[in-house]
Amino acid sequence: MKKIGLFFGSFNPIHIGHLILGNYILENSDMEELWFVVSPQNPFKDKKSLLKDHNRLDMVQLAIKNYPKMRASNVEFSLPVPSYTIDTLTYLNEKYPDYSFSLIMGEDNLKSLHKWKNYELLLEKYHIIVYPRIFDEEKKVDYLQHENISLIKAPIIELSATEIRNMIKEGKNTRPMLPPEVFDYLDGSNFYR
Predict the structure, then answer these.
(1) Does residue 43 have a cis bond before it (omega within 30 degrees)?
(2) Starting at the edge strand that comes first in sequence, how are the strands of the sheet with 70-73 ordered?
(3) Which residues pair with 99 in a beta bridge?
(4) Mind giving me the DSSP string for 112-173?
(5) What is the Cα–Cα distance from 24 to 33, expressed in whole angstroms?
(6) Are residues 151 and 109 in contact, defined by beta-carbon separation less than 8 angstroms?
(7) pLDDT tier at 138 (50, 70, 90 boundaries)?
(8) What mean pLDDT comes out for the span 45-55?
(9) Closest CA to 35 of 89, 115, 114, 116
(10) Residues 6 or more apart from 60 whose CB is under 8 A from it?
């Protein structure tokens, strides 16, 4: 079985925090590949500030071109919107029966897992790799004791795509926060302005 880590997100835009985390997971786990699954629409997020699907996919492809174990996936583009993780995983399992998929998520997302569609099935059938995030300690997560959940000691990168979009809108320099190819892609456009 080929082991694949799935990192879902809107990647609006993908930034160096995503790459640092993805690389850390590949180097410190038994994952053979890490797929950035570009989501058309997160059921919990506002669509207004979302760039077109293909633009976000282009940015992911540009960002990972020097990382041979990373892939950009548009699998959710052809699935019903809004995208539910369990439906995507079911589809991927049927399409790639020889692959074993793990889900990668932030500790902050884990605390709202009970709101996800068929979350019990997710917990039962899939390995979930959880990376640390800074959030309210009182909301610490009870799922961390679950046998299918592994908390990894990845570096905490407090970078947010929202913050980057706001900085671009205000004409501020975002070069250090973005992979160079993504910075150039956005710099030559009106995106987020």
Answers:
(1) no
(2) 70-73, 33-38, 2-9, 99-106, 127-131, 149-151
(3) 2
(4) TGGGSTTHHHHHHHSEEEEE-----GGG--GGGGSTTEEE--PPP----HHHHHHHHHTT--
(5) 12
(6) no
(7) low
(8) 80
(9) 89
(10) 11, 14, 36, 38, 72
On whether the CB atoms of residues 7 and 55 are closer than 8 A, the answer is no
Q: What is the C-alpha to C-alpha distance for residues 164 and 159, in angstroms, rounded to an integer?
A: 8
pLDDT score at 157: 85
pTM of the model: 0.91
Please tell me what DSSP assigns to residue 84: -
Question: Is the separation of the CB atoms in 74 and 59 below 8 Å?
Answer: no
User: What secondary structure letter does DSSP report for 174?
Assistant: -
Q: For residue range 15-46, what is the model confidence (pLDDT) as tens digits?
A: 999 999 999 999 999 999 999 999 986 656 66
* CA 43 remoteness from chain centre: 15
Residues of the chain with pLDDT > 70, as a percent, come to 91
Strand, helix or coil for residue 5 = strand
Is the predicted pLDDT of residue 139 greater than 60, yes or no? no
Q: What angle do CA 119, 130, 23 make, to 5 degrees?
A: 130
> Cβ(135)–Cβ(38) under 8 Å?
no
